[in-house]
Write a structure and sequence with these properties.
Alpha-Beta Plaits, MutS, DNA mismatch repair protein, domain I, DNA polymerase, domain 1, 37% helix, 20% strand, disordered C terminus
Length: 462
């Protein structure tokens, strides 16, 4: 969400995209931004991610109105579909996400169209998440282009180092006015530290991945998310604990994640249109109207009191690798060669992350973009390259049959390690293959891998 209204004075902002970069916090210590024992949560939102990935692939798109389209039609022949995302140049002309292509072309006849390519975008996202992994104590990826980082430990360590230097220099201040001035300088110094840390995240994403990101920093996840939405593109908004009420006061209630059209309408009927008004509403009134869980959640977010932790998402862990064939083919042996070629890279990632796996799957994408998958599960967890390669021939065979029948969306999953496979030489769908992939799932960490449970990357979600 983009809002061009002025930020509250006690909120630090960096609007490098608009030429106002490196705005420093105010030195007015009456609005102390001391974080004390508060968490430092960062939310990173990659700006216009799909179109930005397309610009990395084709730099000539930079500065032009272009859009990524959800369609079944091939690249270069797109005549219908829906806009998945578009460049900021296209947005200025009225193109929006979820807009039918016909309406988008009416708003912008010169709109350049690209077909959605999720595997490619996931590769770029992986690079970003690896950068964020190194910048965080705990990383929680919430989508292909967004993530929360708990940076409390890293910031605290930097702050302790800086505080020790200040204490050595000013150990004789006592408890008078000089001591109060010293504490104010310490708070201001700490705010600089957090701003520099957040800017370093943005700069690393730009330098190492070629992408712009809007970043929000706050004591809670919900506030960090609201802060990252406050300035786009390429913005930085930092909301210190003392600035939370002022920052939220006049913001629209729909900026809170989960408050949609219906809830917004209900709140408006109650005379509540801003987050500040929501914070001043009796919590029992909200519980009566919206239920215990939802009512309390809204109230806590509005008060800046929610304590939802940053959690690494590891409940559906998998690793995958894909490859687009130089020439489409139906030949089983050629596909087998290419699939085996993916194994080295995938196994290296498995070892690097310290995982064992139980399920091997392969994917074939036909020339008409129909996707088929087959899976096979071992009885026990595996950690060798041979466990991958030995499963591939039988899995590939399952795409071939002398009986050309197939159920849409069919996925085979074997319980036994050496289950029988189909026989035949003809593809079930008699269309050449354009892309192949391998996925390892049902993963667990090896004991003694050295990897902390609280750290993860996009490899854990693919």
């Amino acid at each position: 969400m983009n809002n061009n209204s002025a930020a509250p004075d006690s909120t630090q902002t960096n609007e490098s995209a608009n030429g106002n970069s490196d705005q420093r916090p105010s030195s007015d210590t009456s609005q102390s931004d001391s974080w004390n024992d508060n968490r430092v949560i960062v939310h990173v939102d990659l700006n216009s991610f799909y179109p930005s990935c397309e610009e990395l692939r084709l730099p000539l798109l930079v500065g032009k109105p272009h859009a990524v389209i959800m369609t079944h039609e091939e690249q270069g022949r797109i005549t219908k579909g829906v806009v998945a995302s578009c460049s900021y140049e296209a947005k200025k002309l009225g193109v929006k996400s979820a807009m039918p292509l016909t309406a988008a072309l009416k708003a912008c006849p010169d709109l350049v169209l690209n077909r959605v390519d999720i595997p490619y975008y996931a590769t770029i996202s992986e690079k970003v998440m690896n950068v964020l992994h190194d910048c965080s104590d705990i990383l929680e990826q919430t989508s292909i282009d967004e993530a929360f980082l708990d940076c409390s430990g890293k910031i605290h360590a930097l702050g302790v180092h800086k505080d020790k230097a200040i204490d050595v220099a000013d150990s004789g201040l006592g408890h008078g006015p000089l001591k109060r001035e010293h504490d104010s300088v310490r708070n201001l110094s700490y705010s600089y530290l957090i701003e520099d840390f957040a800017n370093s995240i943005k700069n690393k994403i730009k330098l190492e991945c070629g992408l712009l990101a809007s970043v929000g920093v706050a004591p809670t996840k919900s506030l960090a998310k609201i802060a990252s939405d406050f300035r786009k593109p390429d913005g930085l908004t930092i909301v210190p604990p003392a600035a939370v009420p002022n920052f939220l006061e006049n913001l629209e209630v729909e900026r809170i994640s989960g408050i949609g059209t219906i809830t917004k309408k209900s709140l408006k009927q109650m005379g509540i249109e801003t987050i500040g008004q929501l914070a001043r509403t009796d919590v029992q009134t909200l519980v009566h109207r919206f239920g215990n869980k939802y009512g309390i959640r809204m109230w806590k977010i509005a008060k800046g009191l929610d304590a939802d932790p940053v959690r690494p998402r590891v409940e559906h862990v998998s690793l995958s690798s894909e490859f687009t064939l130089p020439d489409f083919t139906k030949d089983q042996q050629r596909l087998l060669v290419h699939l085996n070629g993916l194994t080295d890279e995938l196994f290296a990632r498995l070892r690097r992350k310290g995982y064992q796996f139980r399920t091997v799957g392969i994917k074939l994408v036909h020339a008409d973009f129909v996707v088929e998958t087959r899976e096979r599960s071992y009885l026990r967890f595996q950690d060798t390259r041979e466990s991958i390669t030995s499963a591939i021939p039988a899995l590939l065979q399952k795409f071939y049959s002398t009986v050309p029948q197939r159920q849409e969306g069919q996925v085979d999953s074997d319980i036994m390690e050496n289950a029988p496979s189909h026989s035949g030489t003809e593809l079930i769908i008699n269309v050449p293959i354009r892309k192949i992939g391998i996925k390892l799932s049902n993963l667990i960490l090896n004991s003694g891998s050295g990897r902390e449970e609280g750290q993860s990357s996009i490899l854990d979600y693919l």
